[in-house]
Write a structure and sequence with these properties.
Layout lengths: L3 H40 L4 H40 L2
Length: 89
């Protein structure tokens, strides 16, 4: 059985893992959104698909490139922290 401190430590680690694994995708969305917003402001083009399609493409490319990192991080957390906590070791 986990103590309260151990439980909160596992929750803290889970939140950190969630932050680390989502950071590449959120960064790609931020950078592409700001870049496209600047281009729209400079050219006065206000087309909705101009913001959506490149941002979605950037997110898909970054997700594809960082998929192995994300899955390795999540599997390691599950194996090293969650399974140990469930087993009661």
């Amino acid at each position: 059985m986990l103590s309260e401190a151990e439980f909160y430590d596992v929750v803290r680690q889970a939140l950190w893992i969630a932050t680390i694994t989502s950071l590449p995708i959120l960064s790609a969305a931020l950078v592409s959104g700001v870049t496209i917003g600047l281009v729209q402001a400079l050219t006065s083009i206000q087309e909705m698909t101009l913001t959506f399609v490149p941002k979605l493409a950037a997110i898909v490319v970054v997700f594809w490139m960082s998929m192995s990192f994300m899955s390795e991080t999540l599997v390691a957390f599950f194996r090293d922290v969650i399974l140990v906590a469930v087993a009661g070791d």
